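Recap slide: IP08311p, sequence and predicted structure.
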Amino acid sequence: TFHLTWSAEKISFGKTEQVQSVREGRDAMVNCFVEGMPAPEVSWLYNGEYINTVNSTKHNRLSNGLYIRNVSQADAGEYTCRAMRITPTFSDSDQITILLRIQHKPHWFFNETLPVQYAYVGGAVNLSCDAMGEPPPSFTWLHNNKGIVGFNHRIFVADYGATLQLQMKNASQFGDYKCKVANPLGMLERVIKLRPGPKPLGPRRFQLKKLYTNGFELDIQTPRMSNVSDEMQIYGYRVAYMSDTEFKFSAGNWSYAKQRDFSFHGGKHFIIPHLETNTTYLMRAASRNLAGLSDWSPVKVFTTAAGCSWSPWLYPSYGLILALIWT
């Protein structure tokens, strides 16, 4: 007598790459090499949603992957190749997720830009250049069409952006700054004109207006600047703050301080929330206009309240609680 033994071959995905790329505007094959005996049935998901490949003009399921016609950036994302077997004697399944990247030439993150920015000698300014591209593009900054040299600048580069930070030491640093963005599929460039502007006046009043258990409302005022256009007037403030413990821990280094920016467009209520109860904080303020920040005010010391306090940003919650009590 003969005894035939047979065992199923486990599902595997062979040399399937989990990151795949295709150029925008072309047809793409998301490769998925499913192995196993008996052969599994394969289905596809896109970002967790089932893809119907039956009678589809966009997707076609093939033996070695998913065929996608005329890919665009909207087709980028995670594709899950799911393999399943159901037989009279056993059932099993497995899956692999593939990240599909759509290669495309760079394009700006934001269409609107500030073609003119302002600074003053003795201040600092950040010039930003943000663009998407796949592969991630390179960023190059030029000043008056020449490379930027010297120690008065820093460039912070991310995958999809580069910020040029300038310490304005002299008037020769004003001029045209060009950002060039490039990858193998294309190039962009944008010019920001850096012009001299008036240094803002610092706050003339910086004091506590209201005290809460978990925050402060501040009274900050700066007089209107004379002989300055309306667009160059003060439009807001920056407040830097640290608890006395943080101040001691950082040896008085204000670069470790938290910061909160205020704009007059949001009204002239300057509230610092989410602080610790019964805690002493050191604070300083600076005025802001289009040319940058003023000198910092003298440091003030305020302490949050120890007891229960009505916080203005919690009024809606208090109203709801009272309504529930009275109903």
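DSSP finds two helices and 26 strands in the chain.
Residues 238 and 261 are 4 Å apart (CA to CA).
(End of recap.)
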